[in-house]
Amino acid sequence: MTDLDIAEVARRAGLPASTLRYYEEKGLIASTGRRGLRRQYDPGVLERLALIVLGRTAGFSLDEIARMFAPDGTPDIDRRMLAAKADELEARIRELGVLRDSLRHAAACPAPSHLQCPTFRRLLRAAGAGRRD
User: Fold this and answer.
1) Which of 21, 78, 82, 29 is nearest to 52 (CA)?
2) What is the pTM of this model?
3) pLDDT for 65-104, tens place per residue?
């Protein structure tokens, strides 16, 4: 398969060309050369970009994602790091569930004012203390 130019990679990956250039600057992807002024990429870059997007969606930093690739560019993902991120996501999901339930209660609360609602006041105290419980 022939190399893809930056516009084609951007289109297929659903990312702006500026993001591709930034990822290249960060060492996450590499172009194979240029045709005129346009960068060219091996078609395998699409799978690598999908892994990067998945990592970003999961909340990994670009530096963490960079460490998920061996020097030859193949994925080398630390399973402990994945498990730790899954634990972080699980905790965040629980926090968001509590927040959702509190907001639903506040929206339907019969108290004349949100500030007279004990549940809403508890939510405010938790937010003021930097907690979400």
Assistant:
1) 29
2) 0.77
3) 999 988 888 889 999 999 999 999 999 999 888 888 888 8
